[in-house]
């Protein structure tokens, strides 16, 4: 149930631009076609394909769909050419219908939430926890919890490969874009994954905070103060995957308190610099070593050789006037190098 991105992922940091057509459920290709035709007096399907570097088989159904929605119309003189309908006329009815649909959905949500609340009030102690069986069901719950989060998501991450990888966890990006705060505690062994430092910098830029502890007892996922998801089996148990979904209760309060205790005890991980200088590389190296990362793992994270790591450590020990790495760590803290 890990949430942060792990090794090997290339990702764009930032919030994607949302257009009116996106809001109507049309994809980027439809948006591109409509935007281009809006700027022309008229256009044929081959012209659209050539201008946008798209194939004719790809463009034809897009144009047909835009015509069906009333966003395009055929030119009176030449039926093989299309003109854009005025956006204010063509889009307004679609947007109004979407708004009406959202209003109905919201009313249904309020009604169902009220019914669920009444049911929850009748829960017995045993009903405080739901059992979620199977990988797909757990993945679905993780996505749902993030999609519904409005305040913060708290996560414990083990070094073992998670059921939900960073590549699959698209709801995290969406939640961060909405301003949801992510607080993540990882086991120190996670820091040895190649590329972790780079990915952690990226996640910091969009609002994720990461701290480190040598060891964690289990994975944990808490959405706001409303729900928590923890594995059904013990750490290292290979009997199959399932999870316990914990509803608002004293048990959820306890789980949240445990996370906060770990958070207070954990060490901050992230360096601030996005493009580190030589001095910042030394700071990063010291941070990693203080967190218990091996020389080889530190070299992989920093993109330098093992020999360079060892040489830099020796140089830093000489500058600090110490003879052991333990003394170097203490001196680095005293001198505010980290």
Q: Got a strand count?
A: 11
What is the third-level CATH name, the topology of the largest domain? Answer: Endonuclease, Chain A
Strand residue percentage: 5-15%
- Residues in helices, as a percent range: 40-55%
Spans of at least 5 consecutive residues with low confidence: 1-18
Number of domains: 3
Biggest beta sheet attributes: 8 strands, mixed
Global morphology: flat
Q: Give the SSE order as H and E letters.
A: HHEHHEEHEHEHEHEEEEHEHHHH
Query: What topology, given as strand order, has the largest sheet?
Result: 4-10-9-8-5-6-7-11
The named CATH superfamily of the largest domain: Endonuclease Chain A
**How many helix segments?**
13
Sheet/helix structural class: alpha+beta
- The N- to C-terminal Cα distance equals 30 Å
CATH architecture of the largest domain: 2-Layer Sandwich
List keywords for this structure.
13 helices; alpha+beta; Arc Repressor Mutant, subunit A; 338 residues; disordered N terminus; Endonuclease, Chain A
């Amino acid at each position: 149930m890990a949430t942060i991105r792990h090794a090997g992922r290339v990702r764009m940091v930032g919030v994607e631009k949302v257009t009116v057509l996106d809001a109507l459920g049309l994809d980027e290709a439809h948006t591109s076609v409509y935007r281009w035709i809006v700027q022309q007096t008229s256009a044929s399907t081959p012209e659209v394909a050539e201008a946008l570097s798209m194939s004719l088989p790809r463009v034809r159904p897009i144009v047909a769909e835009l015509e069906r929605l009333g966003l395009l119309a055929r030119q009176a003189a030449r039926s093989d050419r299309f003109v854009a309908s005025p956006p204010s006329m063509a889009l307004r009815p679609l947007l109004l219908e979407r708004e009406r649909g959202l209003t109905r959905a919201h009313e249904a949500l309020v009604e169902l939430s009220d019914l669920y609340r009444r049911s929850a009030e009748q829960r017995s102690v045993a009903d405080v926890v739901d059992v979620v069986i199977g990988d797909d069901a757990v993945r679905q719950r993780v996505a749902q919890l993030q999609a519904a989060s409005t305040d913060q998501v708290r996560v414990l991450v083990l070094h073992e490969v998670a059921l939900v990888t960073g590549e699959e966890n698209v709801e995290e990006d969406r939640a961060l874009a909405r301003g949801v705060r992510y607080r993540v505690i990882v086991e120190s062994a996670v820091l040895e994954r190649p590329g972790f430092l780079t990915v952690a910098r990226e996640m910091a830029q969009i609002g994720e905070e990461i701290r480190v502890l040598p060891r964690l007892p289990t994975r944990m996922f808490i959405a706001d103060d409303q729900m928590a998801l923890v594995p059904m089996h013990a750490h290292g148990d290979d009997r199959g995957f399932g999870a316990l979904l914990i509803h608002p209760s004293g048990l959820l309060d306890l789980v949240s308190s445990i996370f906060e205790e770990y958070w207070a005890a954990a060490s901050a991980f992230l360096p601030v610099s996005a493009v580190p200088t030589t001095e910042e590389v030394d700071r990063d190296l010291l941070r990693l070593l203080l967190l218990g990362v091996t020389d080889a793992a530190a070299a992989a994270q920093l993109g330098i050789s093992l020999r360079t790591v060892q040489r830099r450590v020796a140089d830093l020990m000489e500058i600090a006037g110490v003879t052991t790495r333990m003394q170097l760590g203490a001196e680095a803290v005293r001198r505010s190098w980290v």
